[in-house]
Amino acid sequence: MSSATISAVIPVWNGRALVEKLLASLRRQTRPAAQILVVDNGSTDGAAERARALGAQVHSMGHNAGFAAAVNRGIEMSAGRWIAVLNSDVELAPDYFEKLAGAAETEKAWFAAGKLLSAESPERIDGTWDVISRGGATWRVGHGQADGPRFALPRRIDMAPWTATLLRGELFGRVGRLETDFGSYLEDVDFGLRCAVRRLDGVYVPEAVAWHQGSAALGRWHPETVRLMARNQVLLLARHYPPQLVRQWAWPILVAQLLWGGIALRHGCGTAWLRGKWQGLRSWRAARAKCDAPDLDVLSGLAQAHERLIYEMQAPEGFELYWRMYFLLTRVGQSDT
């Protein structure tokens, strides 16, 4: 087994009890982190103080700077060859780091993601790896579905959720760090797309298991969550979809964005969705200017392959309403995609 060290980076904004549970699971690791970095985004419930008392190295941002900025600060402070980025609301199986690092080293992968189970319903998948559709909507593969054989097979992946992932420290010298304009939500997809166009891929390791509370800070359908998601969906398109793809996939893009707005409206967050879309459109030119020139062929092939995978993974249990409507209106499974 390699002796390459691991630095664990944990952005925190309140949730003292969850932080305690995560740090306890880090102490039980069979391949422990040599450095545990808690980056506090202005917690008011004693989470930072408790983390320090439990032996973590704590850095205060002084305010809620967002997930991306906090993670970037942690990466700057990391000394390990591997950097584990962990949400504060996850709990790791004792061999989580050992399984991820072993697979990544064996497969010469740039990053590794494990199987995330729902903390509330451990028989169900919280997430595995990320994919993106032609319309710019993303899916955390398996989210909400029953765990089973489909999620037991290791595979190469293009994008990993930064809920509990392990990355080579040198990767950031090639790709850069998280884009702070995203604040929170979809910043990991943006990073994954930057990796994909450089053909720097990772591995999904189903033997590495963690449990995720999910949306512990605000809640999945909090208006601020919806606003940020709606805005950042537009920023993804601006940064990664060249004009030719935007024109070619105008219909899937329109369908994907409006369907998500419809679901937000059902949850009483229609105004937040509109605010987010407006903010994203206002930032379109600035976002496009800050990203490398998108690779048309790579992005086109990636999105189409991911969309086929979404269709195949959704079909066995029956499609979620969002994806059922998206596939119906864009004729996925009946077209040449």
Key structural traits:
globular; Spore Coat Polysaccharide Biosynthesis Protein SpsA, Chain A; 44% helix; 337 residues; 13 helices; 2 domains; ten-stranded mixed β-sheet; 12 strands; alpha/beta
Characterise the protein shown here.
The structure is a single chain. This protein folds into 2 domains: 6-212, Spore Coat Polysaccharide Biosynthesis Protein SpsA, Chain A (Alpha-Beta Complex), CATH 3.90.550; 223-330, no CATH class. It contains 13 helices and 12 strands. It has helices spanning 16-27, 47-53, 67-77, 96-107, 171-175, 187-197, 223-240, 243-248, 250-266, 270-282, 284-290, 296-314, 321-330; strands at 6-12, 35-40, 57-60, 82-86, 90-92, 111-118, 125-127, 130-132, 138-140, 155-157, 164-168, 202-212. The strands form 2 sheets. Strands 1, 2, 3, 4, 5, 6, 7, 10, 11 and 12 form a 10-stranded mixed sheet that branches. A two-stranded antiparallel ribbon has the order 8-9. Helix 7 (223-240) crosses helix 11 (284-290) and helix 9 packs antiparallel against helix 10 (270-282). Mean pLDDT is 93; it is low at 333-337.
Summarize the SSE layout with pairings.
Blueprint: E1 6-12, H1 16-27, E2 35-40, H2 47-53, E3 57-60, H3 67-77, E4 82-86, E5 90-92, H4 96-107, E6 111-118, E7 125-127, E8 130-132, E9 138-140, E10 155-157, E11 164-168, H5 171-175, H6 187-197, E12 202-212, H7 223-240, H8 243-248, H9 250-266, H10 270-282, H11 284-290, H12 296-314, H13 321-330
Parallel strand pairs: 1-2, 1-4, 2-3, 6-12
Antiparallel strand pairs: 4-11, 5-12, 6-7, 6-11, 8-9, 10-12
Helix pairs in contact: 1-2, 6-7, 7-10, 7-11, 9-10, 9-13
